Predict the 3D structure of the following.
Amino acid sequence: MTSPELDQLLLDPTRLSIVALLAAARWPEFKFVRDSLDLSDSALSKQVSTLSKKGYVEVKKGHVGRVPRTWLNLSTAGHLALQAHLKALQDIATRSAQHASSDGRSGSESPE
């Protein structure tokens, strides 16, 4: 059985945070995501563009009254990528714990 591979795009902590937040919300406003992750407009815009090109994030623009708004959504491909990435991270953690326990390490010992 092969382990899932880490998604290179989601190794970036900012992109992983964006995808994780979008996994828990449906079509939140750009402003909400920006404020929740404490990012600048330009930083979020750049990362959303990268995620959108990969097909992980959907972007919808419109207006509320006369005020322009942008909404973001995690696509099906984005959900699948996040699940696989988290599974790969979990597999790494599990293997590490198994290796440490088979060596008799508790994790709190210092090197000799």
